[in-house]
UniProtKB/TrEMBL annotation:
Protein name, as recorded: Claudin 15b
Primary location: other
Keyword Membrane applies: yes
Xref: Pfam families: PMP22_Claudin
Organism: Champsocephalus esox
């Protein structure tokens, strides 16, 4: 780390990344885990949404991929929340410690952004996990079937439904 004051260089080498405090190293590891989980969750979510052409027309597999992506997003949010909260706790402890001789840091915008991103990742992952279909096959009742029967085949096209009903059948 070099600083320049009026043409004079004042350089101080940082000895090692391993010389940092343990909570900073753990927070880095948690944030790297969070980034990896978020990246894989995003890829799985893009493949697992029903409107995507990737992955074919197997909606059961797409539902499972979307559910897995939701779990990864929840794990990402938890890792971020733990790392940011732990770092903020240690900053607060050092700030109010009268015996701390080092630099006293304050809670800044980066920590607030970390908390917001963690809450949004957890909420988005919960929504994605709850909205996916994890069943083995799609079962739904067609409008022209009796109330006790369930159709478990492919979805009817609009032309089949239109040919079955007259124009006054829709509400």
């Amino acid at each position: 780390m070099c600083q320049r004051f009026n043409g004079v260089h004042n350089c101080r080498e940082f000895p090692s990344l391993l010389a940092l405090n343990g909570y900073i190293q753990a927070s880095r590891a948690l944030m790297i885990t969070s980034i990896v989980c978020g990246t894989f969750g995003l890829l799985l979510a893009l493949i697992g949404v029903q409107c995507s052409k990737a992955g074919g027309e197997n909606y059961v597999l797409k539902g499972r991929l979307a559910g897995t992506a939701g779990v990864l997003f929840i794990f990402q949010g938890l890792c971020t929340l733990i790392a940011v909260s732990w770092y903020a706790f240690n900053i607060t402890q050092e700030f109010f410690n009268p015996l701390h001789a080092g630099t006293k840091y304050e809670i800044g915008e980066g920590l607030y952004m970390g908390w917001c991103s963690a809450v949004l990742a957890i909420a988005g992952g919960a929504c994605l996990t709850c909205s996916c279909q994890m069943g083995t096959e799609e079962k739904y009742r067609l409008p022209y079937q009796a109330k006790g029967t369930v159709y478990s085949g492919p979805a009817p096209t609009r032309s089949v439904a239109a040919s079955t009903y007259g124009r006054n059948a829709y509400v």
